[in-house]
Specification:
Length: 158
């Protein structure tokens, strides 16, 4: 049996802090405002995986009103979601992740994101696809107000 889940997340920028996307620190003078580290890519991916196994969403498992998750590294959340995927009797087939941002330029970070995600999901890097796109200046991403991400995850029953 194979199942598919999709996920989406968006956060607005704030001045200062560390921008983290796909589990990788990005050199940029702004970060994403969030209860956790604001990694929209991993948040969307967590939602896609949870959706694929029918276990709700990231907010249900890691609520933003729970202080234990304040500033948490989203890689920790992804590893916990992966552990749940495995406990439910599934394994990751493949991941496709799209980050929507006018700035910063993300091409130099793509392979590091791919490797980080593959390591956390205990899969080969070939099973993880990460890409970025702009909105040609349209919408909140295009105006430089924030970043969004979309993810699709395929899981297979073990």
């Amino acid at each position: 049996m194979i199942r598919i889940g999709q996920g989406y997340d968006a956060h607005r920028f704030q001045d200062g802090g560390q921008l983290v996307l796909g589990g990788v620190n990005i050199d940029y003078p702004r970060s994403l405002l969030a209860h956790s580290d604001g990694d929209v890519a991993l948040h969307a991916l967590c939602d896609a995986l949870l959706g694929a196994i029918g276990k709700g969403d990231i907010g249900r498992h890691f609520p933003d009103n729970d202080q234990q998750y304040r500033g948490v590294d989203s890689r920790i959340l992804l590893r916990e979601v992966h552990a749940l995927v495995v406990r439910e009797g599934f394994r990751v087939g493949n991941i496709d992740l799209t980050i929507v941002a006018q700035k910063p330029r993300l091409a130099p970070y793509m392979e590091a994101m791919r490797a980080s995600i593959a390591a956390d999901l205990q899969v080969n890097a070939e099973q993880v696809n990460v890409k970025a796109t702009t909105t040609e200046g349209m919408g909140f991403e295009g105006r430089g107000e924030g970043i969004s991400a979309l993810a699709v995850a395929l899981v297979e029953k073990t």
